[in-house]
Fold these 4 entries.
Entry 1:
Amino acid sequence: MVPVNRMLTKILHTYLKRRKKETNYDEGFLFPTVHGNSLKERDMKTIINRLRYCLTFHFTWHQLRHTFATELVRNNFDIFNISRILGHTKIDTTKIYLSVDTHRLKKQLDNINLFA
């Protein structure tokens, strides 16, 4: 199971309707190969390499994952849910993302009145 927000859900529904209309393919995998099979690691590597070429900068799977987790932290997403989404078995593995945004930490501390 992959959790997605409302905006992505709408985009995926539009994609699935369009895919069914244009290809008459309506079952199996969300992003199938042209033969209707699941994408393999080599397929994903090909897609990422093409994307890198179009974007003209290098990135890795790990960087995409790290950026995603960091953005969740920056948007005040619960660390326990981030851990679940990333598939970490220990919360300590996920805690590394909490130390990423020290600017945000300082801003939050500046905005709190501890002794009011």
Entry 2:
Amino acid sequence: MFNLEIKTFISSLLSSNMYTIKSEKKLIVIDPFVSVELLDYIEGNLLTVDYIILTHEHYDHISGVNWLKDKFNTKVICNDKCAEAIINPALNFSKYFNILFELMPKGKGTNIPKEIVPYSCFSDITFKDNMTIDWVENKFLYSRIY
């Protein structure tokens, strides 16, 4: 088993968190958003992005999926319910994010985009209840929580 390094990135979009797990030169990204800081981290450390893992389908936790897939040709893993919802802007809530920003108190959140267009992405690997991910001599149990 290799040493793992876990890093947290915080989005100014609703203060959502994205996490990375690094082992040697390999990386897993959890709940991605578009981030120059993440890109610098990946490229600066010459990392390979092996997987994107989604904990759930909300837009602020999936908004970087297509960006990462385009840049690093990586695979997305999520449960079957999440996989059904991420392809639908109404179910992943991207369709409603503009309304949410209008309702936010002034001064709450920074760098809010002028407009969020309905967004969708897809999963490459899905599972029903549990899945064991074998990665760099480590095993992770990924369970559906809803």
Entry 3:
Amino acid sequence: MKTKVLFVCIHNSARSQMAEAWLNHICPEFFQASSAGIEPGTLNPLVVEAMAEVGIDISRQVPQGVWDVFKRGETFGYLITVCDETSAERCPVFPGSGIRLHWGFPDPSVLTGTREEKLAEVRKIRDVIRAKMEAWCAEKCVSEATR
């Protein structure tokens, strides 16, 4: 049985989408990830592009609200917020049981500069999220497999 994981942030347009995609890509035999936000927006096109560069298509993902997930009655083994420290006070809390973790990642929506400069920063964020998922999966998947 897979452990369900919910990644939560403000808009569900970048960080939580990348975390969901990475976890589902890296450790699909143990985890089933989804994501939500308190104020769902639209997918960040630079995030979609950066993920496509590494072979992960999130272009069809639809941002969803935390309360929509809650109203469906879904339960999760892990609830992981991914807001950065500057927006942590706005980062939504998901009611219900589950182990709560906070992994702060920079917000791609506040990046400044040219399109190429912003894309370069999104790539860095993507790679930091990937590294976190790889490390977490290495730890959790080993412990899950030995149960």
Entry 4:
Amino acid sequence: MDIQERRRFLEAERNPDIKLDYVITITGRMATHSNVDCSVVSLRYVPDRVILKPTSFGRYLDALGTMDWAALEEAAAAVLNDVNNEIIARWVQVGIFAPDQVHPGIDGHEVLLEDRQPNWDNVGLLSRLKRH
């Protein structure tokens, strides 16, 4: 599946109030390693002009789960770049948490990526967010 096919799963709609800074959180599951439980994917963002339809993010994760990922970091970067391309959020954070014992001797593997629009910051809002 190429990048354009992937991104077609992400559907957006108008932000009901573009003057407000608020955080949207969507979590789902995605196959990232063959023959193990699905990884948990968390998307948090402060929208700008559009918001992501949550059901489309679920379909997107299902599609991504059919792809082979060399590393959890590669999957997280793909999600971040795809979401950024489709909704152009003020701030976006993607976390992927692999199931326990995916790698021998490793209890956990987590990737957390973040991006924001230049010159945007809302320290008060982001400081209240709980770490995953």
